[in-house]
Amino acid sequence: MTDRPLKIAYLCDITPLDTNLYSGGNARMYQALQRHGGEVTILSNSWHMAEPLRRLMHVLPEALNLRMRWRLHLLLGRLIARGVRRELAQGDFDVLFCAYSIQSMAGVGRLGAVVSAFTTDATPTTYKQSQVGQSFGSYLSASRYLDPWIARQEKRVLNDLDLILSPTHWLRDSIENTFAIADEHVQIIPWGANIDPVATCEDINPLRSGAPVELLFVGRDWHSKGGPLALAVLAGLQTQDLPAHLTIIGCAPEGVEAGADIKIYPQLDKSKPDDMAIFETAFKHAHFLINPSFESFGFAFCEASAYGLPSLAFRVGGVPVKDRVNGHALPLGSSADDFVAVISDYVANPVTHTALRKTARTEYETHLNWDAWGRAVMDQLRSRVADKR
């Protein structure tokens, strides 16, 4: 197995130099590959001969553009892939690494001596067939007629890959069950927190009986991230004479007003020092992140673990919350009372909350950070490159 830097071609439908899109995950992957032994070149996200069509898509309303663009890319995959192959031929690459956009690999096929690797938290088909996807429905109702064709294209792409990097057991199982992909082609390597490394994790606001329970909610979409249930948990705690506060980051939910018990930060840009300071303070002072959402992954849970903050979530999709390790993942259908009961147990015995904070931090240090991801991925890539040599 070679120790020299691998020449990696990085492919995605959006440049990894944009630190906001894909919730920042695309940029973090690119940076981690660079840090851990990769000489990484970003390939063009142009559609090459079909580029005028890609630009035309951007004239459409954003919601329609997002849903139609990847389907059209998949349809034109063979044509667009000619340009991808030309770029690969010019660089003498060891690896073609594709993040998120499976359509970018359509038509690329097998690459001979070049190792092809792909990572995502869900493919269109695994997402749509899951409890996560079904909970949101479909924006384009007519798209269901394309579903069998889309699944066939996905299977073709996945079968041609040398390595599929899944951040969760959920996706690994979904890929194997849906597409009958051989187990040895799928490796589980968790993604990390989309923040710079948190050096220490001090419990600056220990949970204490009689003191307010500090709840934190993070998400741009109040409803899809489980905001109404988080609000009901706040009310449930107060009904039981347990003082509690809720801090909301990322949205300004209609009908919810800031006050003595609720703080609202509609939008924070973590690249801005002042906004990041607010973000850090919220995570350091909270006792629980409460995001009972339907997720194929969920970076907020990794970020919570970085601060030793236990997460409360639903046991669904690829949510990276392990019971009594970095929080609790309750069964789907759990009520506000069920979440209140979990919190109440910790309030009654605060030492167990202190222990949970420590194991949450350990989960971040061991698994839920991008350096751990980068080291593990580079080991896999080097092994596959050596096999092809």
Question: Your description of this structure?
Answer:
This protein is an alpha/beta fold and 389 residues long. The protein folds into 2 domains: 6-192 and 369-388, Rossmann fold, CATH 3.40.50; 213-366, Glycogen Phosphorylase B (Rossmann fold, 3-Layer(aba) Sandwich). The chain has 14 helices and 12 strands. It has helices at 25-35, 51-57, 62-75, 77-91, 124-129, 131-134, 147-160, 169-179, 227-239, 273-285, 299-306, 336-348, 350-366, 370-388; strands spanning 6-11, 38-42, 95-99, 115-119, 163-166, 186-188, 213-218, 244-249, 262-265, 288-290, 311-314, 327-330. α8 (169-179) links the parallel β5 and β6. It is globular, with a radius of gyration of 22 Å. The N and C termini lie close together (10 Å). The mean pLDDT is 94.
Secondary structure layout:
Elements: E1 6-11, H1 25-35, E2 38-42, H2 51-57, H3 62-75, H4 77-91, E3 95-99, E4 115-119, H5 124-129, H6 131-134, H7 147-160, E5 163-166, H8 169-179, E6 186-188, E7 213-218, H9 227-239, E8 244-249, E9 262-265, H10 273-285, E10 288-290, H11 299-306, E11 311-314, E12 327-330, H12 336-348, H13 350-366, H14 370-388
Parallel strand pairs: 1-2, 1-3, 3-4, 4-5, 5-6, 7-8, 7-10, 8-9, 10-11, 11-12
Helix pairs in contact: 1-14, 9-12, 11-13, 12-13
